[in-house]
Design a protein that fits this description.
The structure is a homotetramer. With about 290 residues, chain A is an alpha+beta fold. Chain A folds into 2 domains: about 210 residues, Alpha-Beta Plaits (2-Layer Sandwich), CATH 3.30.70.3000; about 55 residues, no CATH class. Chains A, B, C, D: One of its GO terms (biological process) is tRNA modification.
Amino acid sequence: MAKSKFEYVKSFETEDKLLPNCWIVVRVDGKSFHKFSEKHEFQKPNDMRALDLMNRSAVKVMEQYKDIVIAYGESDEYSFVLRKDTEIFNRRGFKIMTYINSLFTSSYVFYWKQYFKEVKLKSPPYFDARIVLYPTDENIRDYLSWRQADCHVNNLYNTTFWALVIKGGLSNIEAEKRLCGTFSSDKNEILFSEFNTNYNNEPEIFRKGTILLRKRIKKPNSEHFKRVIVPLHEDLIGEKFWNTHSEVLSIKPGQDYYFNDTLPDLVKCQLCINTKRNYDEKNNLKEAE
Amino acid sequence: MAKSKFEYVKSFETEDKLLPNCWIVVRVDGKSFHKFSEKHEFQKPNDMRALDLMNRSAVKVMEQYKDIVIAYGESDEYSFVLRKDTEIFNRRGFKIMTYINSLFTSSYVFYWKQYFKEVKLKSPPYFDARIVLYPTDENIRDYLSWRQADCHVNNLYNTTFWALVIKGGLSNIEAEKRLCGTFSSDKNEILFSEFNTNYNNEPEIFRKGTILLRKRIKKPNSEHFKRVIVPLHEDLIGEKFWNTHSEVLSIKPGQDYYFNDTLPDLVKCQLCINTKRNYDEKNNLKEAE
Amino acid sequence: MAKSKFEYVKSFETEDKLLPNCWIVVRVDGKSFHKFSEKHEFQKPNDMRALDLMNRSAVKVMEQYKDIVIAYGESDEYSFVLRKDTEIFNRRGFKIMTYINSLFTSSYVFYWKQYFKEVKLKSPPYFDARIVLYPTDENIRDYLSWRQADCHVNNLYNTTFWALVIKGGLSNIEAEKRLCGTFSSDKNEILFSEFNTNYNNEPEIFRKGTILLRKRIKKPNSEHFKRVIVPLHEDLIGEKFWNTHSEVLSIKPGQDYYFNDTLPDLVKCQLCINTKRNYDEKNNLKEAE
Amino acid sequence: MAKSKFEYVKSFETEDKLLPNCWIVVRVDGKSFHKFSEKHEFQKPNDMRALDLMNRSAVKVMEQYKDIVIAYGESDEYSFVLRKDTEIFNRRGFKIMTYINSLFTSSYVFYWKQYFKEVKLKSPPYFDARIVLYPTDENIRDYLSWRQADCHVNNLYNTTFWALVIKGGLSNIEAEKRLCGTFSSDKNEILFSEFNTNYNNEPEIFRKGTILLRKRIKKPNSEHFKRVIVPLHEDLIGEKFWNTHSEVLSIKPGQDYYFNDTLPDLVKCQLCINTKRNYDEKNNLKEAE
């Protein structure tokens, strides 16, 4: 078999090594999820099952790729941030991007039943991915802030839109017209005066999206630490988040990626209240303890 | 919300428009499928369920992306060839590569049960992808020949290896040692003299892999044409294949991608014998007619 | 000296290997040559000294880099076409582009005095460069046609513009206004009716630019062949040029790049009439024989 | 003229926008300068005329491109560092690289006579260029340190080699053998014990190369400031250089690129001793005042 005769075609592949010493972001984004969410009757404006499934899939990716130090998800997109000094796959961008995207996709289908129960998956959902480099800590913070600001803008719009449609009885087109040209303050006002809704009291997971961090936390009534991937739903645009979780941007090569977190509110609130969305590294998915 | 303040980060994304007028290949490749196949007890040396699932997933990709004119799969990899003149996603390489990879992955999990029945999927399988350009028809033919030659070399090795292990009672290490340094002729001889196996009589899908083409075929006893994606398991290194399916490399913009195929052996053999692996564009999967 | 401590910075350099089996074009283009030509009082609309200097510099580049099979120049730009199969500098695009650009620039300054005689060079002229790939013969022909069409359009404009200014006494702004919105036919008419000029009788070097080819030609009254780089000023958009010089696109690896040319008109016309612009590989510049 | 028919070829050009917020280095490097220096009988181990010509050419480049904040040259190479936030040529890498390379080359030929006087330039010298990104201040400092360490290693070798050849009477091959496997300390010892030369007393321009900075300096006996490009020949690996010239890495958008420098030793030493190598922005070359 004249194998060697054809092997020259391998030389047509391009090298795609990423610039060293830059934060690497891989963002996956649902393909036609507007249609997909209608087909599967997602709740509007937000479907907790869908968000939990997105988060579960992202956790799977973080479990597999330890060089991801933080992830941020909203709606049908998720961003994964890899350490500046990662040498994973020799920093070949195609490999990094396609593995993360494929594992995320695979997990989305794999875990579907766990969240959507009797709702049958009707067709294979899929995602595109892009890979972007950010040279400085300021840049990567601004990137994450950009996505969280996007989450806010979209969620405020969607919350008002669906209030007008579901509670207000407007058609989709009427609701769209009503909101055309409005500012944030206008939408807040519509929600408050017409639907008795204070937007700021909406669930934080809707308004802030989900941040995934690695932590070592103490289980309640136990001496032992446990490595978990913790979902947070809070502001990451201000300084407070980065002061509290200062390890994210300052992690050193060879260091344990999981950090003690002794903040009582985190330990208590997250572990107790959000326990279903705490993900244990070992046991795949930690159901309510 | 100071959205605009952060939006500058979008400018860090890179343009990745592919050179026009080149064949585009996207090849997806299983991540650690050796381990994955063991965990799910794939039959050795080839598991028909796994091959059918790969083919089914590839068909799903071809159904979605009409600019794929031919696909070729073997083992845990699949190559998709897009028309030279495709303008899909404005020829942005990241988009093309990640959509195809993600849809393939998603389909693999989605259709798993259809082929593996009671065998439960234990973890989300995933795939990397690469994208490569080939300027000429000769280059793209050589690319496909390269993969088919690879299929042959691997399958001959695996067939002999597993014969030695399963039928010959050797341990994996003993079989590996036995085959170390052998030529194709040696392996053929081992199969023939020791296991009474003529390698050339092994199923063509194992020896040649699977070629997916778009065809309009006449259903038996019907006047109507039907657009299908046809799986072929034959040699594509020689001239014969390309003479028979000359449309693959000569398709014109705006042309119907499906070509009449009146070759009786194709109509008969493929439709009758391989019918379960003929895929109908409309009805997702066409089970035995 | 802790050399190794710093050497890691080399890893930040990017690989830039060009796709194999494509025609490679390097186009150099004068930086602010409008201003440069005014400063050095170039004749309008065309300065033969400047064109000859451009051609001489391009010949120097072709002498140095044998994988250039054809070059085309007009105004302050020059395009160099390298064989599809060239392995020069391992097809690293930066190397190819910057060497050609730098040698062209260097030659322009080096040979200045030879053409501009007593006109002193007042400041260092310089050029940018770009590198572009063309997969097929049709693409590379279209590329060259594009540049020659550009030459025609610009030269017809400039010829008319400067006729209006120099012979017609219009100011630059008046001439510009006069030509605004005119078609080729209008400009031809202005030249003919107002300045008694038949544009088609203008020198071909102005209307067609300069094509550089490698040829082996017989010197008049001699038995010996000589390798020269021949400047042609003729149409390359039509078929005739490519039929006459069919070797350009069909050169094979290892072949002598210089082709016998027995066309009597070429031998006679070029060697006798344009002799000053025939360039001998060995003796740098072959002055009138 | 069917111009539009061909214009599609422009779409084959690639976008090459550089990642924002990174230091940009363009390094030009002489092509076959070993041979070129022999042909023009450069003095060994260093030829002051050649170094001055390199520096003069680099100054020309810095005069033209204000976003270059520092340049470093040694032997036949020069590195230009552009501000992290430069938007020059819309950060298109090809443009930046080829303009700098071409202007440097052009200047080298243009100013040749000024330094080499009666020594005629025999052939056009030329340079390649590469462009590299460095995300952090530490990286760009390490890059410059890498080049200065290279300067030291090469110069110590060359100084010893040519001492052995010119003063010691060894042939080139004998000198090469003698130095094979030696350490820095060995070469220092050879110079000291055999040629009565203390390497540390060699001219700093040879041992440290040339750093070009923009400064506003007070002319002796004058109240006026003057913007100049100052050549320094000192260590830039240690902290001292960067403390003294802290503006280089901290320049802000819109700021005047020239900084007051009141260090008396600089004003005095540079202006008085090295005066011929101080370059005045306006008057091209400021000869001894």
